[in-house]
Fold this protein.
Amino acid sequence: MPDHRALDAILQPGGITPVFQPICDVDDGHWTIAGFECLSRGPKGTNFESANVLFDYVRLKREETLVDRACITTALAAARALPAETHLGINVHASTLGRDSGFVDFLRGAADTNGIAFHRLTIEVVEHAPPWDGLSFLSMLDRLRGHGARIALDDVGLGQSNFKMLLDVCPDFMKIDRYFIEHCATDPNRQAVIEVVTRLAERFGARVIAEGVEDEATVKALKLLGITLMQGFYFSKPVDALDVPALYESARMYLPLP
Amino acid sequence: MAMRKYFEGLGFIVDGAYELEEAQALLANYRYDLVIADLRLTGIGGVEGLQIVSDVHQRCANTRVVLLSAFGTPEIERESYNRGADAFLHKPKAMMEIAHVARTLLDQ
């Protein structure tokens, strides 16, 4: 079996399928769509349809840069179908930001090609392993911010998304992983962790986004903890770009809150 | 993938991987009762290729591991068991024999 067979399948045209999950702003009684996170699925009918398997594989192959670029290219092309001015979160490994010196030019090119203004983009920094060039990484973040992009720190509290990363990145958004969100309605310890992250975010001037919100009890618990930006199956599973307009209709639905 | 089809025909739920990293990514995300690994998959000759046994047991100590090799030396076979493999089978081996070993290990 030739090496990189799966990587070739992932990178060939049509190998990556982009999907979009809304990030919702929950107000008393209703929610609106604040933006979308662009997610990627690997080739259909393979193990890589699971994003977790896909990106674990990519990291083991140390091909984050190549695949990050491919995911962004397909996501921004598909995002042309989204309403103008829609904010988009795109996932990028910290290792890519540290190693890929041409990333800003690449991203500008991909955004320009698809008529997407840079200020609509939020770079969601993902990292699962420490080895990246710290200075290059921070310099890249500055350049991205200089062009108008915002920065989100993904998976706060897990793996490499720790206090050091928080200090280095000074993110505009802090995304709390589903591990902390699931069962938070009934778990005082999880509520304590979320409360601390929320206070930290306030001190950093950042906004918190709760991931993995799947039921109304969790929405209510998060509201009580001061979080309004939420993402998860309660609002919508990730959908094809062409299905996004229908989400805007459902976003007007009344949400019974206390 | 002939082995996958054979085991599915026996009622097993099977995931298959063509590369070591694909197998490792599956192991990182799912729990398996049994792993059957052809040492050719690892792309590494000699005892270094036995890393897959550790990869499996790091994720789940109870997962059974069967190794297949067409070039298994006595040294590699001995080292496989030292590292925790449950069976080491020399190829060629009939599917029926591999399935028998798998059933026996899962029934233990």
About this structure: Chain A touches chain B through 14 residues (CB under 8 Å).
